Amino acid sequence: xxxxxxxxxxxxxxxxxxxxxxxxxxxxxxxxxxxxxxxxxxxxxxxxxxxxxxxxxxxxxxxxxxxxxxxxxxxxxxxxxxxxxxxxxxxxxxxxxxxxxxxxxxxxxxxxxxxxxxxxxxxxxxxxxxxxxxxxxxxxxxxxxxxxxxxxxxxxxxxxxxxxxxxxxxxxxxxxxxxxxxxxxxxxxxxxxxxxxxxxxxxxxxxxxxxxxxxxxxxxxxxxxxxxxxxxxxxxxxxxxxxxxxxxxxxxxxxxxxx
Length: 259
Fold this sequence. Notes:
Elements: H1 9-22, E1 38-44, H2 52-61, E2 67-73, H3 89-102, E3 111-114, E4 118-121, H4 125-138, E5 146-150, E6 154-159, E7 170-184, E8 194-210, E9 215-220, E10 231-238, E11 244-251
Parallel strand pairs: 1-2
Antiparallel strand pairs: 1-3, 3-4, 5-6, 6-9, 7-8, 7-10, 10-11
């Protein structure tokens, strides 16, 4: 049932150069298929029994290299007897912002949003896979190059240029992810179950605005201390909650030391 509800200067130069080189392939008619991962956001809850098949599907999607799956637990199920241990108000606000942008009257779980464009009932595997395939096939113009690099002190994000000079600005989102989180659920519709959630969003925040020109964002480690994560993902998205134009993920248990 659906539920309403600082890089070193040389390294920095290399990072930007790598992104710019990727733009040597023309964008538009005749361009090759999209190479970046398709972003799939699952809005779910530990208190929602109909979310279980969607959670299982997201776990399967984590094994695909052409998809960036994100699990975002929402808070509005908490009132029904179990406080979701992974949920955050940031996740709930993001889902509601999508609902407003897409003209929906309400939010629901399980909902999968594919590349900021299509929303699909997350348990309907065939529809989800079709939406992913459609973006991989038709989204070749939305392939802004992103390079992400960590050191023991900083996280560096390099974003290449766009050939669509008239396009509106895009928000640069940073997601902190945990590859897996196992929860013993003690109430609600899934009372007594032990569930493992995958690519769990522990924190999300806007870290910049991309206007089509090459952009480098340097984030100090101190700004991210205490956030539960073993990987980070960067998503560039028109208007904040519009279609995704670039995405990259950096799996790493901690900030990498200089080599």
